[in-house]
Amino acid sequence: MRIQHSAAPLGAEITGLDLAQPVDSKTFQQIEDLLHDRGVIVFRGQDLTEEQHITFSRRFGDLEIHVATQCLRPGYPEILVVSNVIEDGKPIGLADAGQYWHSDLSYVRNPSRGSLLLAREVPVQDGRVLGETLFASAAYAYDTLPEGLKARLSTLTAVHGYGYRYELQNSAGLRGKLSDQQLSTVPDVHHPVIRRHPITGRKVLFVNEGFTHAMAGMDQAEGQALLQQLFDHITRPEALYRHNWQVGDLLMWDNCLVQHRAIRNYEWPMRRLMHRTTVAGVESFQ
Ligand code: SIN
């Protein structure tokens, strides 16, 4: 197994490891340590069945079943299909998933530990792969805050929600409506603005453009202004890693340490097909 760090404050690449084979505990520990250090890891050249993708993902914890049940891989409810592909006139997955900065499942009480996204088809134009994914380090964002702002934020909590974001993304009606029953499973939740990583204790700035829509107990306009200031800080160019996909990349990220955004620079009939598993996490704390 070879490891190479990216030039950014996050991101690393692993080659020479076949995840279709059992991973021994020493190697797995190295992977976890790297994840907690760099926030994003790409395992290149993986040819995995759905079962193998799920089996490796389960090494990190229980897997979540996404609320958008119409976008789950038939027969594999642990796999969320992220794709622009249309079959028989119907989208086979979430066509516009994550095209805004977010941390997966920050809108639930126990935000996700991490996600594992496997590239099965990527859009190519003139030899260049499109549909890159951007990552920003929420740990680096915390480290580089002015001390006075760190102190102020350490007493604040923010409100995260999914329903309003789903409706924003669904303005063209492509996703299908979430039922009242589905919506009732994702009520708004509060998380500390400065959160500690559940395993390493490292502090991160835990608000994101996608799902954080208010500061608890703060006037709406004042809260929005502060949130916007933090979103701009988190996504400064120096804090970003841009992932250029290859078919067979399994990209894993830590949803506490980093945020991500999918870039939509391709259109049908170019095809992009990704399978995502999402590892459950624990309640956030300061
Ligand atoms: C996601 O937010 O999980 C999707 C990211 C991507 O499609 O690049």
List the helices and strands and how they pair.
Elements: E1 2-5, E2 12-15, H1 25-38, E3 40-43, H2 50-58, E4 72-73, E5 76-83, E6 86-87, E7 90-91, E8 114-121, E9 124-125, E10 128-129, E11 133-137, H3 138-143, H4 147-153, E12 157-160, H5 163-169, H6 180-184, E13 189-192, E14 194-196, E15 203-205, E16 212-215, H7 220-234, E17 240-243, E18 250-254, E19 258-262, E20 273-279
Parallel strand pairs: 2-3
Antiparallel strand pairs: 1-2, 3-18, 4-5, 5-20, 6-7, 8-18, 8-20, 9-10, 11-17, 11-19, 12-13, 12-16, 14-15
The structure holds succinic acid.
Residues 82, 97-98, 104, 115, 117, 133, 260, 262, 274, 276 line the site of succinic acid.
Explain what this protein looks like in three dimensions.
This protein is α+β, with helices and mostly antiparallel strands. The protein has one domain (2-279): 4-Layer Sandwich (Double-stranded beta-helix). Helices cover 22% and strands 29% of the residues. The chain contains seven helices and 20 strands. The chain has an eight-stranded mixed beta sheet, covered by helices on one side. Strands 17-11-19 form a three-stranded antiparallel beta sheet. A three-stranded antiparallel beta sheet has the order 13-12-16. A hairpin with a 6-residue loop joins strand 1 and strand 2 (12-15). The radius of gyration is 18 Å and the shape is globular. The model has no long low-confidence stretch (mean pLDDT 95). Bound molecules: succinic acid.
